[in-house]
Amino acid sequence: MLHSLDHVVIAVRNLSEATDLYTELLGVAPSWRGRHPQADTANTLFGLANCYLELLASTGDEGVGGQIEQLLAERGEGLAAACFGVDDAAAFAAGMRARGIDATDPQPGEGHSDPADAVRRWTTVHLPPKFTRGLPLFAIEHDPSGESLPLARPAAAPEGAVRALDHVVVSSRDLDASAEIYGEALGLRLALDRRFDARGLRILFYRVGGVTVEVVGALEPGGDASEADRFGGLAYQVADIDLARRRLLTADFDVSDLRDGYKPGTRVCSVRNHTCGVPTLLIEPATGSLG
Predict the structure, then answer these.
(1) Could you tell me if 123 and 106 are in contact, meaning their C-beta atoms sit under 8 angstroms apart?
(2) What is the tens place of the pLDDT at every residue in 227-271?
(3) Buried b vs exposed e over 93-126: b needs ≥16 C-beta within 10 Å?
(4) Which of 42, 82, 158, 161 shows the smallest number of beta carbons within 10 Å?
């Protein structure tokens, strides 16, 4: 029922400053700047090849805006939610309920562009935290009658700009319980179940719509298995990581040295500041595998 990882949400305090940082970080211009009048929020969207990135800020203390303010007060800026794409939100909600999962009723929403008044429309279904092990997860059906989201235009040399989201990391104290969420209930394809003995980790790699959801846990589980899952970061694909790294260093980003990735033929580096609290990795895929 899920055909994509539609987008990920990053909660930010100052939307203008965060937009400038992510324009530099990604090397692309925003695809959309807008507001949600009924939710007391404003956002900036970056359309990538396989999903989009949403920077979300509060404009008031009601609705989602109040939730964002509370989240920022408790945890600071960072990854706040992940949203999966569906063709039929009502059918998705019914399917979840048939499995005993108390999904919300489909809820219509809309966003207005700023400064022009174009409108994007959608329907969302939110999954209960008890089912998601505390992570904000929801599904979205976009309304084709609304404005479509264009692909973000490169603001730097295209080869050094981010093209796609490679993966989102979820950290779990109970991998078996998390596997029931992503594999059994949500129906994501398990592409790989791999042990990393040197790191003491086991990672479940789920694929959906060209993005990987990496669910990470310890080889030897410890601590409270009922502890909520949490987002562990984002990894982006770039065609030329040398160019991307030089671009970021020039823009005053703190970027690690290049190193080989765990997947043969890949190279990676970590971005250690100006990410609004999101652990961030850049990946140059093996030749011919971008996207």
Answers:
(1) yes
(2) 999 999 999 999 999 999 999 999 999 999 999 998 899 999 999
(3) bebbeeeebebeebeeebbeeeeeeeebebbbbb
(4) 158
Written in H, E and C, the secondary structure of the chain is CEEEEEEEEEECCCHHHHHHHHHHHHCECCCEEEEECCCCEEEEEEECCCCEEEEEEECCCCHHHHHHHHHHHHHCCEEEEEEEEECCHHHHHHHHHHCCCCCCCCEEEEEEECCCCCEEEEEEEECCHHHHCCCCEEEEEECCCCCCCCCCCECCCHHHCEEEEEEEEEECCCHHHHHHHHHHHCCCEEEEEEEEHHHCEEEEEEEECCEEEEEEEECCCCCCCCCCCEEEEEEEEECCHHHHHHHHHHCCCCECCCEECCCCCCEEEEECCCCCCCCEEEEECCCCCCC
| Cα 119 to Cα 53: distance, rounded to the nearest angstrom | 18
pLDDT at 287 exceeding the cut of 80 = no
Please report, as a single letter, which amino acid is at residue 103: A
Tell me the two tokens of residue 121.
Answer: 């429309």
User: Could you read off the pLDDT of 171-187 as tens digits, one per residue?
Assistant: 999 999 999 999 999 99
